Amino acid sequence: MRKSNREYLDERACDEALYIVENNATVRDAAKRFGISKSSVHKDVSERLRYVNPVLHRSVRGVLEQNLAERHIRGGRATQQKYRSV
After folding, report:
1. What InterPro entries does the entry give (predicted)?
2. pLDDT band (50, 70, 90) for residue 81
């Protein structure tokens, strides 16, 4: 039996969330892994997941908040590596 679009999106949101939590991944990493846009991943894990699996949603939110807090550090390292290789 074929899944409905809603079931597919709910399952995809859970899969993305598990990937983010298990790998301490960023939204960008998850988007690459699942072959979808960053905005789709963000919508899945921040909006859809809240209603599908609230416990998993809280876990993902923790990882995303940590990534947000560390974003400036990763950006600085990327810039540093860019100019070291020039």
Report:
1. Spore_III_D (IPR014208)
2. confident
* Domain interval for residue 42: 5-84
The model's pTM = 0.82
Count of Cβ atoms closer than 10 Å to residue 21 Cβ: 16
Residue 3: which residues within 8 A CB-CB, separation 6 or more?
A: 11
Instruction: Name the percent of the chain lying above pLDDT 70.
Output: 99
At how many degrees (to 10) do helices 27-34 and 5-23 cross?
A: 130
Number of domains the chain is built from = 1
| 8 Å CB contact between 44 and 9 | yes
Read off the tokens for 39.
Answer: 């905005």
Q: In whole angstroms, what is the distance from residue 37 CA to residue 85 CA?
A: 29
